[in-house]
Write a structure and sequence with these properties.
There is one protein chain. The protein has 360 residues and is an alpha/beta fold. It has two domains: 5-140, NAD(P)-binding Rossmann-like Domain (Rossmann fold, 3-Layer(aba) Sandwich), CATH 3.40.50.720; 149-357, Rossmann fold (3-Layer(aba) Sandwich). The protein has twelve helices and 15 strands. It has an eight-stranded mixed β-sheet, with helices on both faces. It has a seven-stranded parallel β-sheet with strand order 11-10-12-9-13-14-15, with helices on both faces. The N and C termini lie far apart (43 Å).
Length: 360
C-alpha cells in the first residue's frame, strides 16, 4: 500500500499506558507517517517529547508533538493531516465506543483512517458509508491476506548469509519492536548497514519495508511469510545484520509464540527482552499465570540450539536504583550482557555482534 503523509494518533486517554504501544512506536519515529498531534482527553494541552534514546515524556511547555482533547479541538487548529491512526490496543481488538465519534468526525472531515485493531472497520456499515461519502478510505492493517497471495516455507532462509538476530520477550508488551528499532539505529550510528523485519502492524506503520503481520496470517503460512520477508530484506538491502521483531512469548498461555523465529527463520542469535518487576503474564494475574524465570527462558531458547547474546530490560515503573540493581544482578548471575535501551541506549551492542559473527 502506497500510504504516506501527515497523521494524528488517537490514544483514547491511554497515552501513558502500555495499551498505547502503537502510538508510542509512531511517536518514536516513522518513515511512513509524520505524527503532528496526539488526540488524548487525559493529557490535552500538554506536549510529547522524545529523547535521544526513545524515552517519551509529557511536557507542559511547548515540545515536539501537541496533544488535543478530541478531533473537534484538533480541527480548530492550523494543523493539516491526511490520516488518523488508531494508536491503542483494545479489549478483544474492538473499536471502543468512546473512540467512535472521533473516527466518524475524522472521516467526515476528509481524513482517512489507519486501523490496526483486530476488528475490521470496513465491515462496519456506518463507517464504510461515511468514508465513501467523504471520498476517504479506511485502511484495515490487520486484514488477512488472500490465501493465494501467501507463501509456504521453502528453505530459502538458508540462502541468507548474514547474521539474523531476533528480539524475543519473556512476555507480551515489553518493547521488542522498540528494542529492535533502537538496535538498527545504533548500528546505523556506527556506520553499520542493517535493517529490521517487522511482524506487527506498528512496524508497518513505522515504514519498515520488509515484513508481515504475524497475527493476521493463516497459521500454515506464518513460517513462509517470515522466511519470505527476511529473504527479501537480505536481497534488497544487502545488510550486515538483519534484526527481526518478535511477537508474544514462548510460554505466554494466551498466545505462545517464538519457535517460528528460532526454527523457521533459522536465527543466529537472540536478544531477550525482560521486565524484572513483572510477576505474571500481562493481563493474566487473575488466573495466577506466573511468568517463568529469566534463566529458565534462556535455557528453553538454548534447547532449540539458539543462543541469547544479550538481555534487554523494560524498566517501566522502576526507580533509577532498581534499574541499575537488576542490570548488575542479571549480568552477574547469568554472565550475559544486559542493556537498558531506553535509559542508557545500546552503545557496546555492536561490539558484541562483531565479536560473535565477524571475529577473525
Amino acid at each position: 500500500m502506497k500510504i504516506k503523509g501527515n497523521a494524528i494518533v488517537l490514544t483514547n486517554g491511554k497515552l501513558n499506558t502500555k495499551s498505547a504501544k502503537t502510538a508510542h512506536g509512531l511517536i518514536r519515529g516513522s518513515k511512513r507517517f509524520n505524527i503532528v498531534s496526539v488526540i488524548d482527553s487525559s493529557f490535552s494541552e500538554k506536549y510529547v517529547h522524545v529523547d535521544k534514546n526513545g524515552k517519551i515524556d509529557l511536557k507542559d511547555s511547548i515540545s515536539d508533538i501537541p496533544i488535543y482533547k478530541d478531533i473537534n479541538s484538533f480541527l480548530h487548529s492550523s494543523l493539516k493531516v491526511d490520516y488518523c491512526i488508531i494508536g491503542v490496543a483494545s479489549a478483544g481488538g474492538l473499536l471502543p465506543n468512546d473512540m467512535r465519534q472521533d473516527v466518524i468526525l475524522s472521516l467526515k472531515s476528509g481524513i482517512s483512517i489507519i486501523n490496526g485493531l483486530h476488528s475490521i472497520l470496513n465491515d462496519d456499515d456506518e463507517l464504510r458509508k461515511i468514508s465513501k461519502q467523504s471520498n476517504v478510505k479506511i485502511y484495515d492493517i490487520r486484514g488477512s491476506m488472500p490465501r493465494n497471495e501467501l507463501t509456504f516455507w521453502s528453505g530459502k532462509i538458508y540462502d541468507v548469509k548474514v547474521p539474523k538476530i531476533v528480539v524475543l520477550g519473556t512476555d507480551c508488551g515489553l518493547g521488542k519492536r522498540t528494542t529492535a528499532k533502537l538496535i538498527v539505529e545504533n548500528l546505523k550510528k556506527n556506520n553499520i548497514k542493517s535493517d529490521m523485519v517487522y511482524t506487527g502492524q506498528t512496524g508497518w506503520m513505522q515504514g519498515w519495508e520488509h515484513g508481515f503481520i504475524f497475527d493476521s496470517t493463516l497459521n500454515d503460512f506464518v513460517s513462509g511469510e517470515l522466511e519470505k520477508a527476511i529473504y527479501e530484506c537480505y536481497v534488497a538491502k544487502k545488510p550486515r545484520y538483519i534484526l527481526i521483531e518478535g511477537q508474544a512469548a514462548l510460554r505466554n498461555p494466551s498466545g505462545p509464540c517464538g519457535s517460528e523465529f528460532l526454527i523457521s527463520a533459522n536465527v543466529d542469535g537472540v536478544v531477550l527482552q525482560h521486565s524484572p518487576k513483572r510477576k505474571f503474564f500481562d493481563g493474566w494475574e487473575h488466573v495466577n499465570a506466573v511468568m517463568p524465570t529469566l534463566d529458565s527462558e534462556i535455557e528453553l531458547i538454548n534447547s532449540y540450539g539458539k543462543e541469547v547474546i544479550a538481555v534487554t530490560l523494560n524498566t517501566q515503573g522502576m526507580t533509577n536504583q532498581e534499574k541499575i540493581f537488576h542490570k548488575e544482578l542479571i549480568s552477574k548471575d547469568l554472565d550475559i550482557p544486559v542493556f537498558l535501551p531506553i535509559d542508557e541506549g545500546l552503545d557496546g551492542f555492536l561490539e558484541i555482534l562483531e565479536n560473535k559473527f565477524y571475529e577473525n
